[in-house]
Amino acid sequence: MGSNLTVVVPVYNVEKYLKKCVVSILEQTIPVEEIILVDDGSTDQSGKLADELAEQYKQIKVIHQKNGGLAAARNSGIDAATKEYIAFVDSDDYIDPHMYEILMDRLLKDRADMSICGVWYEQENGEKYTPYPDNVQKIWNKKQALIELNSYQYFNMSFCDIIFKRELFEITAYGEGVLRFPVGKISEDFYLMHKVVARANKVTYTSAPFYHYVQRGNSISRNKKIHTAPMDASNKQLEFFKKWFPDLTFVGETGCFFAHVSIYSAYCRSGRKCPDKLTKSIDKVCHRYLKSVLKSPYIPRAKKAQALTYCFSKPLYRVVISRRAHR
């Protein structure tokens, strides 16, 4: 029995990793009927390898395009997809063999529009950890899912650990038509995820980690330059909540708080000083929304402690954060 699933894989200069990624999709315990490899202007042998894989496996389609970034590549994949359901895998990552069978089974049984699993954060040497609790299963309506998206307990902004109904990207809702990733933006997932979740009537979740998010230092999303895009993306999400879900404004405010703090934390972990002007900008937002963080029943105690430490004891915050790996 087929899965009626399209998997979109953006490809850019990943010849070392691409085959492992694609094989992990081909070896799923339910057949993936359509795999779209989008070669986003690779300058290594990735494009050629994609073509060779397509010659070998009939379910693989290849799109070659001028380099436009991760968002543009994913958008091309969405545009070309023909199946009822869609998923995304980054080309330097891989997935467990039963990931899509389990997610699809949950999606169909729970009559959901999105099915989410946990993830492994994996170093290239094979060391890995998962930040999510064991053996947790949840079903959320759209408001509950929007809350959990910003509560740092079960899932985050990543599109890669989810099966979606493809219609979520195509229907008209909340003043917008089709949804696509914002081309030219860093943290493109952050700009889009809340809009997709808002179109889902039901979301099903298992904390079991099936997706292997490989921490490769020179990948698009994990390079050494510290971008402030999450700050802007969180502000856009807050605007969306204020307009369409005003009773969830406090959720958008907590999202803003931690998105801004994440930039300061990134500087701490890199051993660099956060520029004074940027620190002042982060401080302004954090002090404005601290009350929402502390009052929210959905934010874990550890995150509330992080918020208080940042706002009132930066020297201690710098010491603690600089000693911890990014999780």
Description of the molecule:
With 327 residues, this protein is of the alpha/beta class. It has eleven helices and ten strands. The protein has helices spanning 18-26, 46-56, 70-80, 99-109, 142-149, 188-198, 229-244, 249-270, 276-295, 301-312, 314-322, and strands at 5-11, 34-40, 60-65, 85-88, 94-95, 114-123, 128-129, 137-141, 162-165, 202-215. Strands 1, 2, 3, 4, 5, 6, 7, 8, 9 and 10 form a ten-stranded mixed sheet that branches. Helix 2 (46-56) links the parallel strand 2 and strand 3 (60-65). Helix 8 (249-270) packs across helix 9 (276-295) and helix 8 (249-270) crosses helix 11. It is globular. Mean pLDDT is 94; it is low at 219-223.
Short description:
The chain contains eleven helices and ten strands. With 327 residues, it is α/β, with parallel strands linked by helices.
Question: What descriptors fit this protein?
Answer:
10 strands, 10-stranded mixed sheet, 43% helix, alpha/beta, 327 residues
